């Protein structure tokens, strides 16, 4: 009897520890998901942004400006926010570490001209 209880306790702790690991951004296929704020299909992956709450709920956005408006509208406890590197759509950056600029040279899906870059040097050609 005690062996069954021990087995259940071990399984419980193993599942708990696996779920406590570091969270990572999800890769999407173009057009697979709709923006959590404006409901447009996410088709330009240079602007794809993700937010995950402490409860594990994940939200996807088609532009940085949709993410920002969504955060203003909702009172969520955010665990992590990722933005896509404008120059490399396979690379996600933490929003806290990314260089986010506003530029007339950038045509974001919602028209605000916001884009994320890994370094300040990468963003220079897009600045006025």
From TrEMBL:
Q: Which SUPFAM superfamilies match?
A: NosL/MerB-like
Domain of life of the organism encoding this protein: Bacteria
InterPro entries assigned to the protein according to its UniProt record, in alphabetical order: N2O_reductase_NosL
> Which Pfam families does this UniProt record tie to the protein?
NosL
Q: What is the recorded name of this protein?
A: Accessory protein NosL
């Amino acid at each position: 009897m005690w062996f069954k209880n021990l087995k259940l306790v071990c399984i419980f702790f193993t599942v708990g520890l696996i779920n406590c690991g570091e969270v990572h951004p999800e890769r999407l296929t173009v057009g697979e998901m709709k923006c959590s704020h404006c409901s447009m299909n996410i088709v330009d992956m240079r602007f794809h942004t993700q937010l995950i709450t402490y409860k594990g709920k994940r939200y996807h956005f088609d532009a940085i400006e949709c993410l920002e408006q969504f955060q203003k509208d909702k009172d969520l406890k955010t665990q992590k926010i990722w933005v896509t590197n404008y120059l490399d759509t396979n690379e996600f950056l933490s929003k806290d570490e990314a260089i986010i600029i506003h530029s007339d040279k950038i045509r974001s899906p919602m028209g605000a001209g916001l884009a994320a870059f890994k370094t300040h040097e990468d963003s220079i050609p897009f600045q006025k």
